[in-house]
Amino acid sequence: MAAGLLLAGVMPGTASAAEPDPRVDLGAGWLDAQSAISNLEHLAHRDKPAGFVDPANPGSGSYIASDLGFGGKYAFLGNYNGFNIVDVSKPADPTLVTSVVCPGGQGDLSVYGNLLFMSVEETRGRLDCGTNSSVGTRFQGVRVFDVSDVLNPVQVAAVQLCRGSHTHSVVTDPKDKDNVYVYVSGTAGVRPATTMAGCNNNTATGENPSRWRIEVIKVPLAAPEQAAVVNEPRLFANPETGRVDGLQNGPLEPRHPSGSTWSPSPNTNACHDITAYPEIGLAAGACQGNGILIDISDPANPVRIDEVADPNFAYWHSATFNNDGTKVIFTDEWGGGSGARCRDTDQPEWGANAIFDIVDGKMEFKSYYKLPVPQSLQENCVAHNGSLIPVPGRDIMVQAWYQGGLSVFDFTDSTNPHEIAFFDRGPVAADRLVTGGFWSVYWYNGAIYGNEIARGLDVFALKPSAHMSAAEIKAAGQVQLAEFNAQSQPAISWTPSFAVARAHYDQAVRADAIGHPLKSQVDMFLQRAEKFAAEGKRSAAVSQLGEISAKLVAPEHQALKRAILDLQASL
Prior knowledge:
With 571 residues, the protein is mainly beta. Helix content is 11%, strand content 32%.
């Protein structure tokens, strides 16, 4: 791969004429495209393994790399042709462990303990994972694999669904440790009853239509083979009339604000993606024509509590909460992921993120965030999947933009999101649009992992810059999760440490919220305390922390003070 360009510390969108954004006009290539990078280190790239790529057509729909899940030291890479398991215990040297060929399309993955859940949407899917789609029992739904032996994953259940599974979300119940639930979003056409009894394409006023609902699968952890649908909640129903199609049933305007036809059309008959946050009892559903907020305090019986629409949004695609659960970001997959939607003629509110504050169970719009640099006509580019980076005291997200690459941005101020790091490659082909780019980009245990549709797996590390300090990066890396699925969002907490205290100190300095001489005093006392702690002089370290915390009395110093007091108590 060609060496990337580096402009560390340059804010995209604000660079001077002498320093143009290096992402513009990158050279094309499948495995040798030019790249541009800022405030990140590219640790590793691994091409897609044999059986998961067509060299003659790298963006082939039968071999698209899709979503990611993580468990222990492994990354699980979804693909329309199955999945791959990669050992990421050494992020700079990811190693393929197992490839499982199991065609069926979409291939979104989630991991819970020793179970792997996989979305299957296409009619070519077979119950037995067979590759000859002309024979065998059809399967569209959610597969369940036992991956306790990563060298030999075994399918233990397969739940058939009327619209298959485009995506799914694992939902836990803090009061029930024996079961997990899987919320399924099916967006495909309805299967004929000949392939699954009870499926129908009835209108909203017909008997039990297979549209305008999600499915809830209950999975007994001790007997996952008993996984079954236990509810089909009508999350879009009008509470006054009872009509199941109670939300947006088509575009608010005849044409998209760009003047083009709607692509896709915002018609809320399914959710595209649901992100659950069990610790706060909420989920956010990106549901085609609407963003919805869902009460999941009873996971088997989710209830819609708020909904929003946006005349700029073509297709509500995915959602991410901030860690406090006070904000939610929705993405708009304008163009369905296969179109060039980051052109210099496209407005920043089209194919972008919409950021909402959550106030008393209601969503209040605050701003948009879109990749702040134009891409070429040969690059599919639109807002797609990402996750939080757990920097204490800040709301930071890393996000995939297909062939727009990845963007790391800060939305601590929900009215003023701004980019702080990026990576981008040139298009797959120079003369035409070949689908490629990052499907998902997620942070997991100290590194950023991206599943690239046409090219394979990429791994990145954050680099200190004017926008993020070494202490903030270290504090984020100290958060270690046993597993991670972006659509099953965990509550993050930080063990008290000098890195966490330093992160809050660096934020106060960056915001110009702490002046001299206090700024120098805090720095000096933290240095002394850390030195004493390293030497085993606990009492001296505790004394230093107590002395400096007493000087932090202003309201803008309280986050820093709390981090120092927590550290003092932990020594």
